[in-house]
Amino acid sequence: MIAADSDRKNVIVVGAGLAGLSSACVLAARGHNVTLLDKNDWVGGKAAQHVAEGYRFDMGPTILTVPSVLKRVFDEAGRNMEDYVEILPLDPQWRCFYESDGKGNLGNENSVLDLVSDVEQMKRHLAEFTGGDINGAGYERFIGLSKHLHEVSDRFFFWRSVGGLADTMDVGGAFSLSVLKDVLSLRMGKSVASVVRSHVPDGRVSQMMDHFTQYVGSSPYASPAVLCSIAHMQTEEGIWYPVGGTRAVPEGLAKLAEELGVDIRTGVDVMRIESNGKRVTGVVTANGELLPCDAVVSNCDAVRTYRELLDGTDQSKRFEKSNRYSPACSGVVLYLGLNRRYEQLLHHNFVFSKDPEKEFEYIYDRGEPAPDPTAYVCAPAVTEPDVAPEGCEALYILVHTPYLREHHDWKKMLPEYREVILDKLESCAGTKGIRDAIVYEASLTPEGIHNRYRVLNGAIYGLASHGKFTGAFKPGNRRKDLEGLYLAGGAAHPGPGMPMVMMSGWIAADSLDQDARGGKLTGARS
C-alpha cells in the first residue's frame, strides 16, 4: 500500500549494500521519498565484482539461498524478480573434500562427499560414504529438527524487528503456553556442534553439517542451536547462481530502485547522523553538506553506526556501555585466474581442515589464523564459462580468519598464509600444480575488508552469533533510543548472509513505514 501524502517521509539510506538497496526499494514502493548514499563508487557493498585480463570474480558473497526473500522485495513493487535477475539452481549444492588426519577420525585416506538437496538421496550418499545407515538416519532427523526450528523462527524471529528474547514473545500482544512451548523448543543452552553431533557420529559428516552455519561466520561450538534452522532453509529452497554472478543481485535491485524514483548517490561518504537529541534530523557528508530528513536507515555496521556516526551523543554512550557484541570472523580471499580447470571441482566446494575443533579454537579463541584451515572454493566456470577465457577458471578461495587484532599485519602475513592455503588445496582437493596454473591473481585481507566496507574490525559477517542462549540476537532494526533511526545489514537483525541482510533491509523499511503511518515519526518533513 502506498503511503498517503501525510505519511510520506523523506528517508536517507546510508550504505548501498544489499540491505540498503532492499530497504530503499521497499520504502520507495510504499511511496516514501528515498535518497540512497554510499561512500564507494558502486552499489552493492561486498557484492562487488573484479574484472581483469579476461577473468571475472565476485568479490564477496557467492552463494544465494532462500531466493524467496529477494522475490519479496520485488513483489513490494508489483514486479517479477525474474525480469531483473536470472537465477539457476545448483545441485549438488556443495562438494566436500576431506583429508585424512592419520588417526582414522576422518577416514584413512582423502575422501569426497556431495551435498544434495533431496534428503532421501542424501541418505543414500551417506550410507555409501560411511558404510552404514546410522549417519543417513541421523541426517534425516536433523533436517526434521531444522525444519521445526525454521518454522518457529518464521513465527517469532523473521520479518519483524527483534532485538532480544523479549521481542520474540510479543506476538499479537499476547503470551500463551503454545508460545512458551515453541520458544523452549529452540534448544537454548545447546550449541550447533552439540546438536549436529548428537545426530551423526561420523566426523566428516558432522563437519559438513557444521558449515550450514558458516553463512554467519561464527563457531558452531559457540553458536546457539537455533541456527541449525539454516540447514532446512537451504535444502528447502536450494542454492542458486545468479547469471552474471552474485553481482547481478545488486544490479537488479539498483535498477528497480531507479525505476521507483530512488535518488542513488555514490561517492558520498556519510560522517554523522544529526539529531535534536530525541529524533533524527539529517546526515552530514564528508564534504560538510547537511542533508535533512525525517528518518535514516543505516546499512553501516551497527556498532560503528553508534560509535562513529552518532559519536558523542547520549545514544552512543548508552550503546557502548551495554555493548555485548563482538565481531564475527574475517577472511582472506584469493582471486586466481587459472589457465586450466580442475574437473573434480563443482561450482561450490569446501576443502575441510583435519581438526575442526582446533581450527575454530585458533580463529575464535586464540585470534590467530588456523595452521590447517578450511577453504571454501568457488569455481563458477562450471556453470558460467564466460567468467574466464575458454578452458580456464576464475577461482575464488575464501579462508576464514580472526577479525583484526592490533598485532595483525596482513601485508606481512598474507604471503605466508597464501602458501598454507594453496598447499591445503593441493593436499586435500588434488589441485596439483595450481601455482603454475595461475596467470592472474588478486587478494583481499581482513585489513582490506575493514577499510573497503566499513565493517567492524574487518568482520565479513557483522557480529558474531556466539552465546548458546542469546547468540542469535543482533541489534534490533527499529531503534527505541532515537526516533527515526533504523538499522539494516549483517550486523543487525536477523544477521548475516545474502537472504538475511536483504530481509533486514525489508524489516527496517517495514518498521519505518509502520511508524510513519502510525504517526510515530513526529518530525516535520523537510
Write the layout of secondary structure elements.
Elements: E1 10-14, H1 18-29, E2 33-38, E3 49-52, E4 55-58, E5 64-65, H2 67-76, E6 87-90, E7 94-98, E8 111-115, H3 119-130, H4 134-156, H5 165-169, H6 177-184, H7 192-199, H8 203-210, H9 229-237, E9 239-242, H10 248-259, E10 263-266, E11 270-275, E12 280-285, E13 290-292, E14 295-298, H11 302-309, H12 314-322, E15 330-338, E16 348-351, H13 356-366, E17 375-378, E18 393-401, H14 410-429, H15 434-437, E19 438-444, H16 446-453, E20 485-487, H17 498-517
Parallel strand pairs: 1-2, 1-14, 2-10, 7-16, 14-20
Antiparallel strand pairs: 3-4, 5-9, 6-9, 7-8, 11-12, 12-13, 15-18, 15-19, 16-17, 17-18
Helix pairs in contact: 1-2, 1-10, 1-17, 2-17, 3-4, 4-7, 4-9, 7-8, 11-12
Task: Describe this entry's structure for a reader.
The protein has 526 residues and is an alpha/beta fold. The protein has helices at residues 18-29, 67-76, 119-130, 134-156, 165-169, 177-184, 192-199, 203-210, 229-237, 248-259, 302-309, 314-322, 356-366, 410-429, 434-437, 446-453, 498-517, and strands at 10-14, 33-38, 49-52, 55-58, 64-65, 87-90, 94-98, 111-115, 239-242, 263-266, 270-275, 280-285, 290-292, 295-298, 330-338, 348-351, 375-378, 393-401, 438-444, 485-487. The protein has a 7-stranded mixed sheet with strand order 8-7-16-17-18-15-19. The protein has a 5-stranded parallel sheet with strand order 10-2-1-14-20, with helices on one face. Strands 5-9-6 form a 3-stranded antiparallel sheet. α7 (192-199) runs antiparallel to α8 and α11 (302-309) packs across α12 (314-322). The longest helix has 23 residues, at 134-156. The protein is globular. Residues 18-510 form the Amine oxidase domain. Keywords: Carotenoid biosynthesis, Hydrolase, Oxidoreductase. GO terms for molecular function: hydrolase activity; oxidoreductase activity. Belongs to the carotenoid/retinoid oxidoreductase family.
